[in-house]
Amino acid sequence: ARTAQAILALGDADVVNVGRGWLRNPYLGLQWAADLRVDASAITPPQLWRAHPPAKRR
Question: What is the pLDDT of residues 20-54, one digit of tens each?
Fold first, then answer.
C-alpha cells in the first residue's frame, strides 16, 4: 500500500494496477486502508463488514 501511495504521490504514475492482488485477496483494499490508517467504512458495502469486520482502532 505504501509503495503504491508513494508512486502516485511522486507523480511517477497516474494509476497503479493491482488486479492480480485483488484476485488473490478480495480484502486487499480493506487491508491497505488499515495499513494507511484510512477509514474505509464509508465506501465499503455492509456485506463486506459482516464477513470481515473492521480492525479495532489503535
Answer: 888 888 888 888 888 888 888 777 777 777 766 66
How is residue 46 written as a grid cell? 455492509
Cα torsion angle, 7, 28, 43, 16, sign: positive
Sign of CA pseudo-dihedral 44, 46, 47, 51:
positive
Contact 1, 32 (CB under 8 A): yes
Higher pLDDT, 58 or 53: 53
36 is written with which cell numbers?
A: 494507511
Q: Where are the domains of the chain?
A: 2-51
Residue 54 has what pLDDT? 60
- Tell me the C-alpha distance between 57 and 55, whole Å: 6
Inter-residue contact 48 to 30 (CB < 8 Å): yes
